[in-house]
Amino acid sequence: MNIVAIRAVILVAILALWEIAARVGNPLIYVPPSAALPALGELLRLRSYPDLPEHLALTAQEIVVAYGLAVAGGLGVGFALGLHRVLGRAYGPILAALYAVPSVVWYPSLMLFFGLDAASKIAFGFLLGFFPVTLAVLAGIRQVNTHLVTVARSFGASSTTVFTKVMVPGMLFTLMGGLRTGLALAVIGVIVGEILGSKSGMGSLINHAYGLFRTADYVALVIVTLVLIVASDAVASLVERRARRWTA
Questions:
Q1: What is the mean pLDDT of residues 217-232?
Q2: Distance CA 201, CA 193 (A)
Q3: Core vs surface per residue 73-96: b (16+ CB within 10 A) or e
Q4: Is residue 33 part of a domain?
Q5: Which of 25, 96, 126, 197 could be cross-linked to 69 through a Cys-Cys bond (beta carbons 3.0 to 4.6 Å apart)?
Q6: Which residues constitute the domain of residue 204?
Q7: How many Cα atoms sit within 13 Å of 78 on the Cβ side?
Q8: Distances (CA, A) of 51 to 39, 202, 228, 241
Q9: How many angstroms separate the CA atoms of 74 and 137, rounded?
Q10: Is residue 6 part of a domain?
Q11: Residue 190 lies inside a defined structural domain of this protein
């Protein structure tokens, strides 16, 4: 049995268990797939939420901006600390400690500074994506074989050549893992931020449906959001595989 068949069997089993469990429970809270799928159809036809495309586009834009800022900031800070050992030893543990703090505690402050609009969601997504990228750069630089750097410099390689031809390939696996993790956390940060407090975006629609006990619509919105998350991770996985082939 191949992987696709195994996944199909698992999916069917989950849907069957979901259907059975939902029919036993309270219909206001538990929605079976037989009710969620029609609600998903109504949602995609723009009948239950006619403004779905606008909210979906806003969430996607917030994710792109948050992740772009997280990558730019993470790479900049990571390389600045990693290429200067004193700074790395001084600030590396501080970054690790801040990363260990539950991220949700930062959101009230971000909402206070940036309000309920897109800025606070972007800031929250940036905050969640920044740390894994930065720490991945630091870890990747430490994994580079110093002997290869010494040999390259002994043959007259410039600093730019050493960086692009020796350091980047040596740290690429770790770096790509950090970039992929940063993307996942940036997506989570934006959507969670919208759920906790927002006037627009997919998270606000989910919160609206949940608050009104429109459970079938709630499940349908979650499915659409899940597709968005899986699609972003699939793109990251494709980029990661291409990068691995480049260094193979």
A1: 89
A2: 10
A3: bbbebbbebbeeeeebeebbeebe
A4: no
A5: 126
A6: 52-247
A7: 27
A8: 15, 10, 17, 36
A9: 8
A10: no
A11: yes
166 found inside a domain: yes
Q: What residues have CB less than 8 Å from 31, skipping those under 6 apart?
A: 22, 39, 215, 216, 218, 219
Residue 82, token pair as written in the block: 């990693």
- Residue 173 belongs to a domain with what CATH number? 1.10.3720.10
As given in the structure block, the two tokens for residue 159 are 């600093």
The pTM is what?
0.84
Tens-place pLDDT, residues 33-87: 888 889 999 999 988 899 999 999 999 999 999 999 999 999 998 888 887 877 8
Which residue type does 238 have? L
Residue 207 near residue 124, CB atoms below 8 Å: no
Closest CA to 167 of 142, 136, 144: 144
